[in-house]
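Technical annex, item 7. During the second reporting period the consortium partners agreed on a shared format for inverse folding records so that results from different sites could be compared directly. Each record opens with the tokenized structure and is followed by the designed sequence. A conforming record, contributed by the partner at site C, is shown below for reference.
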């Protein structure tokens, strides 16, 4: 099996290197950016392709590892070479785009799939470390998915076979778990700054706390990992927080996250209906209403 890549970004280059170190023949890279293609080819001891025809001819599997916006264009360009597409497998690595974007490349002789790594890869070095520990979601033709399984197994990753999920929502979940975690960290630093905490001197002060929380989520699950004032039904502490947050935008963000935290705490069975509605009233910025009955 020879695998060629269209696109020479971090994920494609890292995946190619890991495969090359585990017995898979990497044919080479085609990229708009010739220098990127050269670097990736050198790193993986493979070739630099100058045309779509060349990458198709020299590969059994073609993985499109460009940014999402470029995938339809790449598919269109590949589909122009129908006379040499037989017995080829095509894949893209996007989490948000569905399988159908590859349909112009599919017929009774060709196979398509989506192979998305559930991982953040800011650099090749981090990707080389993290991809073997990660899940890959696979969706597509049976034969293509079998190839996807082999690819993931070769790099010691784990796979999940999917069928007809709402990919934009799946990808949104990945974004929240990764990108919004970074935003949440920034939110915490903004509150430290507002508090007068010398966070410039201790930029990693919250990291052990975050790591401990992730460890608890992994070991106990999301609901049972929840601790803190809302989980305890500590109305006074939540009130103190809100009274001291001066930035309206940060206050609204605190309230929005607090409402979701409140639902988790209620699911956990942390308190009764009365306490739930008292906290809900605070987080909504109004008076609590204890006359309702909470139903979930």
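Designed sequence (site C submission):
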């Amino acid at each position: 099996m020879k695998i060629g890549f269209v696109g020479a970004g971090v994920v494609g280059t890292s995946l190619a290197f890991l495969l090359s170190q585990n017995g898979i023949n990497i044919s080479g890279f085609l990229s708009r950016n010739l220098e990127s293609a050269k670097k990736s080819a050198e790193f993986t001891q493979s070739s630099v392709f100058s045309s779509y025809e060349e990458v198709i001819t020299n590969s059994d599997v073609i993985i499109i590892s460009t940014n999402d916006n470029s995938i339809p264009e790449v598919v269109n360009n590949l589909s122009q070479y129908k006379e040499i597409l037989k017995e080829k497998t095509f894949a893209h690595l996007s989490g948000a785009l569905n399988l159908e974007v590859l349909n112009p490349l599919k017929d009774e002789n060709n196979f398509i799939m989506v192979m998305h790594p559930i991982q953040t890869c800011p650099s090749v070095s981090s990707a080389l470390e993290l991809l073997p520990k990660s899940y890959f979601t696979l969706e597509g033709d049976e034969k293509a998915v079998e190839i996807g399984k082999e690819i993931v197994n070769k790099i010691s990753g784990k796979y999940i076979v999917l069928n007809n999920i709402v990919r934009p929502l799946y990808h949104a979940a990945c974004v929240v778990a990764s990108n919004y975690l970074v935003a949440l960290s920034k939110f915490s630093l903004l509150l430290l700054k507002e508090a007068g905490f010398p966070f410039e001197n201790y930029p990693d002060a919250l990291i052990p706390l975050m790591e401990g929380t992730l460890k608890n989520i992994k070991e106990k699950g999301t609901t049972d990992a929840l601790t803190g004032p809302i989980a305890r039904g500590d109305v006074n502490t939540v009130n103190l927080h809100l009274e001291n947050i001066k930035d309206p935008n940060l206050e609204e963000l605190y309230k929005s996250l607090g409402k979701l935290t409140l639902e988790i705490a209620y699911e956990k069975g942390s308190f009764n209906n009365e306490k739930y509605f008292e906290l809900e009233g605070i987080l909504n910025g109004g008076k609590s209403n204890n006359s309702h009955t909470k139903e979930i």
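The chain has two domains: 2-165, 169-284. The beta strands are 2-6, 25-30, 47-48, 61-64, 89-92, 111-117, 135-140, 158-161. All partners now use this format for quarterly exchanges.
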